Structures are given as C-alpha cells and as structure tokens.
Amino acid sequence: MGTPKTFVEKVTSPPTLELLELFRDNSYDAAIEQLGAWGLPRDLAHGAWSDFKVLLGPWDSIRFDAAPMVFIHHGEGDDNAPIESVRDLASKLPKSEIRISPYASHAGLAEDDSCTEMAKIFREVSGAER
User: Fold this and answer.
1) pLDDT tens digits for the chain (130 residues)?
2) Count of other CB atoms within 10 angstroms of residue 2
3) Final residue of a domain: which of 56, 83, 98?
4) pTM surpassing 0.85?
5) Fewest CB within 10 A of the end CB: N or C in the chain?
6) Structural domain tally of the chain?
7) CA torsion, points 58, 82, 18, 104, in degrees to nearest 10?
8) Planar angle of CA 61, 21, 89, nearest 5 degrees
9) Is residue 100 domain-resident?
C-alpha cells in the first residue's frame, strides 16, 4: 500500500476511502461487525483490520535500513494503493525496484490470461532474471 501519509492523501478508491473511515473511527469489534455486514468472512475481516492498523500505525520502529532487496510489483490500474505511496515506500528501502504492470490491478493479475506477468515474477524470484 505504501507509506501512510502519502497513501491517505492520494487514495481515491471509494471502497478504500470507506475502509479508512471505518478503521480510523471504530474499535476492532465494531469494524469486524461492519465488515461482516458487508459480506466479508471473519478471517478476511481480521486480515483487513490488521493491514490497516499496520498501515495507519506508527512506523518509527520499522528497520528499513535492514531490509533485503525488495521487488515491488504494482498494477498501473490499482486505485486502492496509490503509486505515489508505493514509490514513497520504495524510497525508504536501501535496495528496491518497482515494476509497474499493465496487466495488474489491486485484486491481482487475473486479467492477464496468458500469465505473462506471473511467469516474469516467478522467474525473477527464482533468480533467473537477476
């Protein structure tokens, strides 16, 4: 998702803005209840709560300087995670590369029927493209 300040300033997706409000203003139980009312299973609701608590919480204890090489794959059609906040996060890492994919959105690479991007990612992870 990127860094908190930039994320909150730049995100434009209506569902993500609604989630920001929900997590900012409600307790865990109230948020889980609301997410359940929206149809999210409890385990996924807990995961969403945890993700946003990390995103919106303090980052001063994160050791960015000790991070290994990080390859960030981001979809150019992702309205839920603004590219500005992803770039801001990458700038905090000592070694990172951002790959922007025309085949990906926030939900995944499902629009790429030939799995071109996934194959590229797996080759990269395996060391074949380094």
Assistant:
1) 677 888 888 888 888 888 888 888 778 999 999 999 999 899 999 998 888 888 888 888 888 999 999 888 888 878 888 888 888 889 999 999 888 877 666 666 556 677 777 787 788 778 766 5
2) 23
3) 56
4) no
5) C
6) 2
7) -120
8) 35
9) yes
| Dihedral (CA of 77, 78, 82, 88) sign | negative
Q: Is residue 65 part of a domain?
A: no
- Structural domain including 48 reads 4-56
Candidates 113, 94, 95, 93; CA nearest to 103 is 113
For residue 123, give the 3-state DSSP assignment. Answer: helix
Answer yes or no: are the C-beta atoms of 93 and 64 closer than 8 Å.
yes
Verify that 74 and 52 share a domain, yes or no.
Answer: no
Residues 76, 50 share a domain = no
Residues 6+ apart with CB under 8 A from 76: 83, 100, 101, 102, 104
